[in-house]
Amino acid sequence: MEILIKKVHFLVLLILFMNxxxxxxxxxxxxxxxxxxSIKIEEPFVSQNSRNSSxxxxxxxxxxxxxxYKTSLGLFQKFSxxxxxxxxxxxxxxxxxxxxxxxxxxxxxxxxSPPKPNSLLLFNCLNSKHTSVLQNCPHLKNEQDxxxxxxxxxxxxxxxxxxxxxxxxxxxxGNEFHPKELNCSHYRRVYKSTSQDGNSVKFExxxxxxxxxxxx
Length: 216
Fold this sequence. Notes:
Elements: H1 2-29, E1 33-36, E2 39-42, H2 51-57, E3 60-63, E4 66-71, E5 74-82, E6 87-90, E7 96-97, H3 104-107, E8 118-123, E9 134-136, H4 143-149, E10 164-167, E11 186-194, E12 201-205, E13 207-210
Antiparallel strand pairs: 1-2, 3-4, 4-5, 5-6, 6-13, 7-11, 8-10, 8-11, 9-10, 11-12
């Protein structure tokens, strides 16, 4: 009888161990994760475990291997997701006409501010309202730099305008701001990032959102 009890006890422990191992393996194998093109999509953008995660999941839309940020303003192509720092970048691949202006403030509405502010470049502006928040683009040294940032600023005659103003932090702008107030022809959304060596700050194209407050 004692031998039988020991065997039963051993079998119970063995079954318990197997269940724990199987549970861990299943969790690792079925951890929410997928790809949209070359961009890895993982929690919280594919999780349905909480209200917050579901909110983030609803923002991501994959079409034809292109990842989009879905908002009430429309679809915007996502450039990258930084899971370590909980940041996502909405790309702005070309200089846009002011008539199609989308405010970086509207894109980031409801999200906490990123570590470094989102900025705005305004091209060929004809008046100087909002002078307290505007400055000349410090990284534009010649016409070639302007051409690289806004090739669409070419006039009908083919001459290149290099007039450029920058709003260092878009949060300094009023909610109703529009480039047409300054008669600007084009704009670009940019953000600040730190160089790899950590010794300098540079501008990158796009708008950054922090989702740290929504991470579980």
